[in-house]
Amino acid sequence: MTGRTGVLAGIGAWLPPDLVTNADLADRLDTSDEWIRRRTGIRQRHAVPAGMAASDLAVEACSRALKSAEVSQVDAVVLTTSTPDRPLPATAPAVAARLGLGTVPAFDVSAVCSGFLYGLAVASGLVAAGTADRVLLVATEVYSSIVDPLDRSTAVIFGDGAAAAVLRAGSADEPGALGPVVLGSDGEFGDLIRIPAGGSRQRVPLEPGDEYFRMAGSEVFRHAVNRMSEACRQAVTAAGWQLADVERLAAHQANARILGALGDELGLPPGHVLSNIDTVGNTGSASVPLLLTQAAADGRVEPGQRVLLTAFGGGLAWGATTLTWPAVPALGPSEHPSRRD
Ligand code: ACO
């Protein structure tokens, strides 16, 4: 491949400080720590305090990604979320303004849990087209604002969080260069993950709870493994790799059992399959970049390793891509970005 490619130049993440343990959930729902751990692999998740919105998390994550990339300016901001601050306008312009990025183009991408993979395709497309030399991509989610607190099948899964990456223009043979991004969708199964009310189809709730997130979990589970494994195979082939070349898999953290099944399906040793679901739960589109940030910060991903990224979620929508991990500092939630110049 020749020409300009998006290259990962910086990465950072942020988690709101409040913790919700399985025991906290078992206090108010008909569930147990044992069930949640055994069926999902989750021990705890983070949640925003009252009044904190997606843009607030995004600003924190972006500050860390910009510091990681050692830049203070970008040419575009792409934001992925299922929980925007408001239905309108997009959340990205507010984030760009709060970061002092001036009047750069800033817009949201909506692809539920696959948002970061779709965002990578958009951001690297802006770079490849010559529209931008540097793009800030941020995935930010406040699922606690849309999950039904009384629905034990979803309330135990989701957590809040944000993560961001800076992509710069570079060439395909550099560490950090994104491989071809494989994307797909199947709207025939759109009702498996949805919020019934709040859109132009049904503006207000007709039934109690229509304003909340709904998921047909066990049906979605099967699609998740099939679609992600297929996308992974396609992305690996498109990159000119073999599956045996993959040293780390950074997959959407929806369920530890999905991660196990996906790793088995792809023939990857368990140690190659990254996970942080036990401490953060499913953080929607923030899941993959949050995982990468934490894994790079604690040495589970090292520069030079071949990493396969994949995600799956509502839409249905899915994606996968590859990159060789670059030597960039990953700034996790506990890092405090100093003021940028
Ligand atoms: N505690 C105790 N019991 C529970 C709980 C709970 N928290 N939740 C469900 N159950 C019960 C159900 O009521 C059911 O009981 P029944 O047999 O008496 O009817 C039983 O457990 C089994 O229910 P399932 O839904 O079949 O449970 P499953 O083992 O499939 O786990 C889960 C549910 C965790 C949701 C799983 O299906 C899953 O992870 N699905 C995939 C999620 C995913 O990949 N989503 C896509 C990304 S997310 C996005 O796009 C926003």
Keywords:
341 residues; alpha/beta; Peroxisomal Thiolase, Chain A, domain 1; 30% helix; globular; binds acetyl coenzyme *A
What does this structure look like?
The chain has 341 residues and is α/β, with parallel strands linked by helices. Strands 5-4-6-7-1-14 form a 6-stranded mixed beta sheet, with helices on both faces. Strands 8-13-12-11 form a 4-stranded mixed beta sheet. It has a two-stranded antiparallel sheet with strand order 2-3. Helix 7 runs parallel beside helix 8 (256-266). Helices cover 30% and strands 23% of the residues. The model has no long low-confidence stretch (mean pLDDT 96). It has one domain: Peroxisomal Thiolase, Chain A, domain 1. It starts with a strand and ends in a 10-residue tail after the last strand. The radius of gyration is 19 Å and the shape is globular. The protein contains 10 helices and 14 strands. The structure holds acetyl coenzyme *A (ACO). Residues 31, 35-36, 39-40, 112-113, 152-153, 156-157, 193, 217-218, 220-221, 224, 254-255, 258, 282, 284, 312-314 line the site of acetyl coenzyme *A (ACO).
Topology:
Blueprint: E1 4-14, E2 18-21, H1 22-28, H2 33-40, E3 44-47, H3 54-69, E4 76-80, H4 92-98, E5 106-109, H5 115-128, E6 134-141, H6 152-155, E7 161-171, E8 182-185, E9 193-194, E10 214-215, H7 217-238, E11 248-251, H8 256-266, H9 277-280, H10 287-297, E12 306-313, E13 317-324, E14 330-331
Parallel strand pairs: 1-14, 4-5, 4-6, 11-12
Antiparallel strand pairs: 1-7, 2-3, 6-7, 8-13, 9-10, 12-13
Helix pairs in contact: 3-4, 7-8
The structure holds acetyl coenzyme *A.
Acetyl coenzyme *A binds next to α2, α6, α7 and β12.
